[in-house]
Amino acid sequence: MDLRGYGWSRGMSGSYTLDEAAADVLRTADELAITRFHLVGHSMSGLVAQKIALQARGRLQSVTLFSPVPPTGFRADEAAMKALNAVIDEDEAAGRAITARTSSRYGAGWLRRKLTIAREASTIEAKRGYLIMFTSSTISGETHGLSAPMHVVTGALDIPFYRGEPLRNAFALAYPRVTFETIDDAGHYSMLETPVRVASIIEKQLAG
């Protein structure tokens, strides 16, 4: 499903908080009469998936996270927030961010396509709201009570925050059944860079 302000939910506004996003997902599952389910999340939605997993841990069969924000959150000082807001407002800043998250390995055509996707996928209001969400939220509570297996997938060509040892340590400390996998040929956008590999990883988790 698309979060408020994104994709097919682009016309839905909200407070863009972690609690709201988690509640929307669980309400959707209820309306579809899905009692047990697998969760898949990417980047900031990896934080949302963790929140859902702890709120509805008895309903979870597995959690698969691609390049996720760790449970400790994404802490950003004033300078970092200025840079992240520039990514929302300025194509040049967004292009630099995309290039950094793919180790500068793609050409101008792909960069234009990725930037178009980013601009058309969501509203400015949603972008700003979720930016505040994932730079000010952490996952707390009885994380060790999550019995469902969690699989964290990182891209070897991503920026260090989304693939480094601190991220792995944060997940390992929080969740008892976490496993890790690296996609050597992907950066932050593995679903676009290596779609067959991503689909295969998800299928493996569902089958398990």
TrEMBL record:
Single GO MF descriptor: hydrolase activity
Q: Which InterPro entries match?
A: AB_hydrolase_1, AB_hydrolase_fold, AB_hydrolase_sf
Ranges where the AB hydrolase-1 domain occurs: 1-200
What keywords are assigned to this protein?
Hydrolase
Record-given protein name: Alpha/beta hydrolase
Specify the taxonomic lineage. Answer: Bacteria, Pseudomonadati, Pseudomonadota, Alphaproteobacteria, Hyphomicrobiales
